[in-house]
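User: Study the shape:
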Amino acid sequence: MLQRIWAVTQKEFIQTLRDRRTLLIQLGLPIVQLFIFGYAIRMNVEHIPTVVADQSLDRASRAYVQAMVVSGYFDLVATAPDERGAIRAIDEGRAQAGIVLPPGFSASVERGDAQALLLVDGSDVFTSQTAFNAITAIAQAHSTQVMIDRMERSGRLTGQRLLPLDARLRILYNPNLDDLWFLIPGMVATILQTQTITLTAAAVVREREAGTIEQLLVTPILPGELMLGKIAPHIVISLINMLTILAIGIYWFDVPFQGSFPLFLWLSFMYVFSGLGLGLLLSTISQNQKQAQQLATLMMLIGLVLGGFMFPRYLMPPAIRIIGNLFPLTYFIPIARGIVTKGVGLEYLWEQVAALAIYVVVMMGFAARAFRRGLD
């Protein structure tokens, strides 16, 4: 049996190495994707272009604007005479946030009834959410400081604490909220899924279109042995890509690896098998290579959205979460982030590992059954 599997594996390796351009793309594309994601994707939006319509131009209004600018979230890029001018600057794309301060702002602050209008461009979800949260927090902090200053000047604040509760924040595992510490483990999982599904999506249908599948059928090899032989080169390529991506993330982007590398390697090998099984299933049920690639692209896009790479799964409706369970990415992302970022082991990840193991068995079983039917 091993001899027959090795014979098919040699054939696949020779065919893979012969097409050097395709092999170069298979090995180089994940690296390009990693650098694009690593430098282009930013979850924490800062330096938001901001237009200010300060109709008061007094000490209090300038202090309010300065509090927004020194936070680092807002950059003053334009001024406007009024609210209409600020909205016009946002509509023209020159700014994504606006601050409108009415006349007599300083006197209103002293009376305790000052109001400021904060405008946010809602057409950009990430920017608008960051701007809304930042503006709210900074405005509240500035208002609190203004109130404390007024009480100190009036003599009503004599050493006692103004706020009875002091909440302390401690961020675990990523104290600086570095985007890449969150993105790199998820990108390893995402790129591996893309590679495994794509590499095997055309494995069987290519043989069928070329007419070589009949030549394989007349040999003594069994369908299961043929399936293992065809995916063996893809396992090697996928693991090489995984190690390359992880090394770049650790040594180039300075993402710390907190957990056990042998455990991560073993679970990655299991994850690769699940993706190859899914790709082989798509290849078997497809009529031609174009159809196989279209199905593979569809699976990758759905898995990317529903797997939890960018959007939290707990916010999704139950029916959508069930659909997301059909993709191995859903189980491996918590494993990758748990081992790489948190440094936890099997005692914390056993549910995801068990689900991934069941997925591998079920998917490889379906793929083998569909593979036999496709050969028949």
Observations:
- The beta strands are 48-54, 74-79, 97-101, 117-120.
- The chain has two domains: 2-41+177-375, 48-154.
